[in-house]
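Entry 14. Structure prediction run on the chain below.
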Amino acid sequence: MNEDRFNMDIRKFLKVVGVTSQREIETAVRDALAKGRLKENALLKPRVTLSIPELGVEHVVDGEIGMT
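Output returned:
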């Protein structure tokens, strides 16, 4: 296995996940605020599931995002 390529591909994947996830969260929050479905002081509780079927991996990360 080429460790350098493997490491770089993981980092590239995680960067895309991070950037696109942030964009989706920001867009959804702004939309919900504009439509009155979310209060300015809300506490969001996101959950991300990483799935790698070839490895049988299911990894869940729970978090909190405060808006105040």
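The chain has a mean pLDDT of 98.
Filed with the rest of this week's runs.
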